[in-house]
Amino acid sequence: MTRRDLRRALKRTGLYAAALGFMLFAGFPFYWMLITAFKQNRDLYVGASDLSHVPWIFNDPPTLEHVRLLFGQTDFPRWVLNTLVVVVAVVAITVAVAVPAGYSLARLAGRWGERMGMGIFFTYLIPPTLLFVPFSRLISLLGLQNSLGSLILIYPTMTIPFCTWLVMGFLRSVPWEIEEQAMIDGYSRLAVILRVAPRLIVPGILTVIVFTFTLVMQEFVYALTFISSVEKMTVSLGVPIALVRGDVYHWGALMAAALFTSIPLAVVYNLFIDRFIQGFTMGAVKG
Amino acid sequence: MMRRRTLADREDVLGVALLAPALGYVILLVGVPFVLAIALSFSNATAGSLRFGWAGLRNYAAILADPVFLRALRNSAVVTVGSQVLVVVLATAAAQVFRATFRGKRLARLVLLLPWAVPVSLAAIAWTWIFDSTFSVINWTLKAAGLLHGWLYWLGEPALALVAIIIVQAWRILPFATVIVLAGLSSIPQEIVEAAIVDGAGFWRRLFQIELPLLLPVVTVAVLFGVVYTATDLGVVYILTGGGPANTTHVLPTLAFQRGILGADLGQGAAIAVFLLPFLVVVAVTMLRLARRAEVGAR
Fold first, then answer.
1. Does residue A113 belong to any structural domain of this protein?
2. What are B43's strand-pairing partners?
3. Shortest CA distance to A35 belongs to which of A66, A57, A10, A7?
């Protein structure tokens, strides 16, 4: 082997080692969820000071006991249902409000569209942790405390700014000629918006739906602030808060819940990640 | 055009009509609460009643004299800076790795992105289990490797708990930062890199003198979002330590929650949350300057 070959081989090895290292760091908690979710209790609860018992593998055969507990004896199915209700409602509000706004900023607003768009985007940066104090008061004034309605009302404050920005950016990449041609063909501006534009925006709308779905699945702060009774909780609130009632941690069921919630989100994220990134980098990267 | 122009052709009218709902939502449910958040910090409002009395600077005086608050402020800074330093180093390295082509790259990328997809609260509960005082797999592994002789009570000692919080925050932000830096790397014109290779610049020289300076705007964007996500995050600390042991690991959001919501002292909770504003102002101003530079560069 020549020196050059050796160097190349070393470089490849280094590359694989680094890639593996990053995979281990990122993936380790998920492996841990997986193995915990299916381990028998006597395999699970062995103190870490016992070096003869290797926690990384199944020492006893895997079991579905925790999964059965999660779906049969906890409120987890209820939380999934609650989450879906909130997702559907928030998606509907977000699409109805953000898509027209994005269209307006991209196509109708002219020069002030860009500025306005950025202004709306910045409200996305105002975090729930700054607003939950006034919201807790507002929600109780509206009589919405401890109801899914509170989440349905408040979550769009996070999705509308980002989605308006996404739709605006998306429309920039759609050629104007199709709409222009429709107007030459005698459509009014409004008719173009109602009949021609929706077809053009479909991929943008899809991104909006996915972003909203993931955000609702992930939100914790507002849910923690507004929702107090267990049967009204969403998945991201109920699992860490209500599955550990008392001092008994059902780690198997907990990790099963975390795992089953993560999988659909991971799949969806992987498909849409490039779109989100375009939204986040705002022209600092030209794709 | 044959058709007579009507109201349905007025772009300005349609523009305002389509934008109005979004603008209304944002003004009513972000703008107003934002102002209210600041107003509340000067009031003696409590959750139970509708009383809303002027308290002047009393809330601020109270928290500034409170060691728990000062500790939370310091923790917020330590966690934010610590995790972002870690993220920048790791994300730059990861982007170099994932720029290359290698077998199994798609799978590796999928795994790398997982932490971003999982809800914060569920990731935090998984880490709580990983850091468990009796069953911590980290302790087992360190002991099995002969690296640990005593015992690490990860979430039971203030300094270790902060380390754990920084690890979790860095873990959570890393995928996002890596993807952004990767997007930045792919937008560096290939000619510049090729010219550098022709001129005999090696890997490190290329990295430090060409790519990193060109990457600066993009790394800044990654850091800015990282700062917002970390400094304003409540879930990780709330679930990992709940601010304990003995209120030593609070960050601003968890303390604001404890005082404002659990303790029903809205005024003080709001005043604590207001200390998040400096983080956000810095972020917003930097973003604006970057965006302006991108705009100028585009012309």
1. yes
2. B54
3. A57
Distance CA A200, CA B235 (A): 38
Q: Which of B126, B171, B184 is nearest residue A255 as measured by Cβ atoms?
A: B126
Give how far A267 is from chain B: nearest CA, Å.
9
Question: Residues of B with CB below 8 A from A54's CB?
Answer: 144
Encoded amino acid at A177, one letter:
E
- Among B14, B135, B183, beta carbon nearest to A108: B14
Instruction: Establish how many alpha carbons lie within 13 A of residue B152's alpha carbon, considering only the half-sphere containing its beta carbon.
Output: 20
The enclosing domain of A226 has a CATH number of: 1.10.3720.10
* Least confidently predicted of A45-49, B85-89, B289-293: B289-293
pLDDT digits (tens, 9 = 90+) for B71-130: 999 999 999 999 999 999 999 999 989 888 888 888 888 888 889 888 999 999 999 999
Q: At what angle do helices B120-130 and A3-37 cross, to 10 degrees?
A: 90
- Give which of A171, A175, A233, A180 is closest to A202, Cα–Cα: A171
The CA dihedral of B17, B22, B28, B34, to the nearest 10 degrees, is -140
Question: What is the CATH number for B228?
Answer: 1.10.3720.10
